[in-house]
Amino acid sequence: MLGFIPAKSDTVVVLLCRQPCAAISKDISWNASLWAPLIDDRTFLSWLVPPPSEAEQLRARQITFNQITKLEDLWRENASATLEDLEKPGVDDEPQPILLRYEDAYQYQNIMGPLVKIEADYDKKLKESQTQNDIVFVWPSEMNFV
After folding, report:
1. What does the pLDDT average to over 89-110?
2. What single DSSP character describes residue 53?
3. CA distance 17 to 35
4. Which of 4, 27, 46, 68 is the most buried (most CB within 10 A)?
5. How do residues 24-74 score in pLDDT, each as one tens digit?
6. Burial readout 31-45 (b: 16 or more C-beta within 10 A, e: otherwise)
7. How far is CA 112 from CA 91, 117, 119, 125, in A?
8. H or E segment at 69?
């Protein structure tokens, strides 16, 4: 459970991962017995995250778990993506499910082709994310490797 310990000075709060972390600390400005959870009744404490106003609550909208998952996937490509971007054509397209048997090669190609492209795009992004730029390598010419 995520929690906090107030420090000896009134302006400092130390955030911790969970209660066992409070006992591990050797910092003398902490009193582990004052540890308290950051979440109370399924909400963050009001001094940490203020509750929304009525206007903000009226503006809020309900979103589904699937929308959250798709938005997080979209954020990998575009960090400024919003829920409106999910409604754009082509964003929500799921590939066709694979079959145990196919009627002909054309059906097989139409189902497997997009899946192979998705995997290739994923592999390409993965390899590109592992590259490093602005690296200078100098091979000393004085060394003889014969």
Report:
1. 88
2. P
3. 11
4. 4
5. 656 556 666 777 888 888 888 888 889 989 999 898 888 899 889 888 988
6. eeeebeebeeeeeee
7. 19, 9, 11, 20
8. helix 65-77
Amino acid at 134: D
Q: Which two tokens stand for residue 3?
A: 């929690």
- What single-letter amino acid sits at 74? L
Q: How many helices (H) and strands (E) does the chain have?
A: 5, 5
The amino acid at residue 135 is I
d(C-alpha 39, C-alpha 1), whole Å: 8
Q: State pTM to two decimals.
A: 0.45
> How many residues comprise the chain?
146
Beta-carbon contacts of residue 7 (< 8 Å; ≥ 6 apart): 13, 14, 29, 30
